[in-house]
Amino acid sequence: MPDLTAKKKRPLWYNLSPLNLPLPGLVSILHRVSGVVLFLGLIAFLYLLDLSLASESGYAQAAGLLRAPIAKLLVIASIWALLHHMCAGIRHLFLDVDIGTSLHTARRSAFAVFIASLALTASIAVRIW
Is 74 a domain residue? Predict the structure, then answer.
């Protein structure tokens, strides 16, 4: 009979680093992160909408806030979050109906999500900046 106490004394090492995840796992985690970024960004966008609709001076103040470089970066980050969340969501919908579930196809679709969301974000960022 094997000695179970020797097995319990072994040190455990859990590698929780997301850098060691395969690409589909990283896309899945970023899908969740982009959802949180969208939710938090919604608060700022609703504030700016309220400010801009309140009066003409509020509109000018909101426009002035959005001209700042840090605001432009935050808008671009929110656009990336929206586009990544959308592309990854479409990928997850296909995976839910068993389309693209093989390992090779899942890796290719995860790579496509990264490329598509970054390319679309870059094309919009050029117009914003």
Answer: yes
